Amino acid sequence: MEQGHAGQGLVQILEGICNRTKSPSKCIKNIEEFGMVVNVTDDEVLQKYSPLAVCAAAGLCQLDCCDTPFIPEQIHIAAHNYSTVSITWVTLEATPHPTVMFGTAPDQLLRTASAVSTTYTKGGWRGAVHSARLSGLQPSTRYFYLVGDTTLPKFWSKPTLSQPTLFFTTATAPGATVPTRLAVIGDAGATDVSDMTFYELARRTHSADPQLAINFTLHIGDISYADGYEVLWDNFMRKIESVSAYAPYYTCPGNHEGFFNFTSYLTRFDMPWEAASSPGPMQYSFDYGNIHFLGFNSEGFLGLSPAFITTDSAVYKWIEQDLSRVNRTRTPWVVAFGHRPLYCVESNDDCTLFADMLRTDFEDLFFRHKVDLVLGGHRHNYQTMWPLYQNKNLCPQQSDDACFTNPKSPVYVIDGAAGNKEHLTSMPSQLPDWSRKNIKEYGYGMIETSNSTHLNWAFYASADGSLLDSFTIVKSM
After folding, report:
1. Residues forming beta bridges with residue 103, ordered by sequence position
2. What pTM, to 2 d.p., does this model score?
3. CA 19 to CA 15: how far, in whole Å?
4. pLDDT for the residue 52
5. Whole-number Cα distances in Å, 295 to 198, 230, 273
6. Residue 463's pLDDT is what?
7. Phi, psi dihedrals of residue 17, rounded to the nearest 5°
8. In the list 126, 302, 353, 419, which could disulfide-bond 193, CB 3.0-4.6 Å?
9. Quick one: pLDDT at residue 3?
10. Can you point out the beta strands (E) in 281-419?
11. CA gap 31, 14 in Å, rounded
């Protein structure tokens, strides 16, 4: 195809190929669903797909998740609260009794939790996803675990289980003075650009130094950049296992998860939406330490803009109720996160049309309920803003001490530079007066707080872990 050719032209060519197959109607349906998402992204998406990827999208080629039938891989966890943790893993073939064995010593895995298994076939993917929920856990306790199925024939005379013995530490029961430290990333991807970011996160996840160690990672959308090529989902989930199998890995959907109507994302991740009484798994909330986290969905069907949220929608009502129920004595800090930003400095649709839609949907909610920090990604850079509301700078002093002491609005941060295959993006030379700092460098964010008066934000370079930016939100008692 010619460079710059419209996405619909690609769909027509593929439909012509489908008509030559044994099942043209199924093939055409798959291509049309795939094409609807391709057609709403930029022309560069046409350069991202190998012949095998296109064949799989049409449902004509199979993509095996794994090299062996039953060895568990792609292990990741999410804490639903301090006493319940979900553990998810993948095998090529379904197994009769997928199970987590766990306990408080590596040689005493005396408790078990059965997993629920599911699968999907979109994009030609073949595999089984198993997810178990471990309940009745004690707070602030290290648990060791293995996943797999001991009823299967042994593999090289060994049980068909994960190895080595893994572990995680449960959260402390929520409270105002509970220390909380987490990493924040956005727009990562399965290709090698993000390797240095995940090296840094693994270093922190396994560190015994309390000044380095993190409780969990928050990934604010655009996760694997599979874009319908399911091999990249498997590659990504293997890439992050040294992080995600040892500490909770929370996510929210981005536009690159929209392929096949978010099927891959929804099957692979078990976020705590039921515990939060959310109307669906695309949005949820949870308490961790002294912070209440609210994950909102900035994406619609086919990865389009978020204009579906209105004041009478179930999602809007749930967010309103969730923020109204926050116990500020127990969790004095509130952090909201979603993939697309409400504010950004560029002049494209992301920062004008779509940002305006998001502000219509969410800004008043966050402002009225005194959300402290709003995290976004999508723009492949790092941006921070002075406190602002309805596009107006509320802190003309433009100094950290003045603006972040009892700030008059939520503080907005864009953290979309974890390392995806689409490269970093530049900022314009002319910036609005609410723009605080902009950095074009791969990196990750950190949140740290241990009381109700100070919340620290920092942004570190993925290449060497050096500090690139930081500020502290201070609230008077």
Report:
1. 144
2. 0.94
3. 6
4. 87
5. 22, 25, 9
6. 96
7. -65, -40
8. 419
9. 45
10. 284-288, 291-295, 333-337, 373-376, 382-385, 388-389, 392-393, 411-415
11. 7
